[in-house]
Design a protein that fits this description.
Elements: H1 15-33, H2 44-53, H3 59-71, H4 77-82, H5 85-91, H6 98-116, H7 128-135, H8 143-153, H9 163-171, H10 181-189, H11 196-212
Amino acid sequence: MGVARARPVGLHFAPMNREALLTSMYQSMLASLGESRWWPAESPFEMAVGAILTQNTNWKNVERAIDNLKTARALTPEAMATLPSDELAALIQPSGYFRVKAQRLKGLVTFLDQECDGDISLLAERDLDELRPMLLTIKGIGPETADSILLYALGQPSFVVDAYTRRILSRHGLLPEDTHYDEVRDFFMDALDPDPAMFNEYHALLVRVAKDFCLKKAPQCEACPLREYLD
């Protein structure tokens, strides 16, 4: 069926009204789909590596690359720092763009060595507004990857925006799909309490809704947990 269109509200929504709307949407998704229990990883460093490897690929390919790193005992900052770039690239080949991603991982471990002696968990003690710009200085780490590391690896209240988020907001008349990343992020963060657990679950639920209902083609609006928010 076609996509129903809601009245565009965007950032003209008053903060309290937007908070009520976003909270209600969250509760509807959670009630319908249940908890997501994201992000699968055994350590904060593994989560950060996964955030880089998942760029332009699906999670199954990332899992294969992560398994290769574990088998090679290369999934620590120390081991990854000393591993030759070509060997690292070979291990993460399943994730695609493996030579580029190998350099990005090398940049990450260099950053960790300089900023926290290789212990990524220490970064959680930094202020979000200080840490996010620092992560964005690492070559190849853009806003979505930085926010994924902040939220999933470090437990910081930084909302993650992706193409699924944009699609859902656009189809519900909340923001144009081409809205700048930081404006979409602020759409959530300016209205909701800075709760990492909620941000984690919210992003996961949006991804699930987009993949199962709010499809790029032939969206399944009638079965969608967010159907009541469409006109």
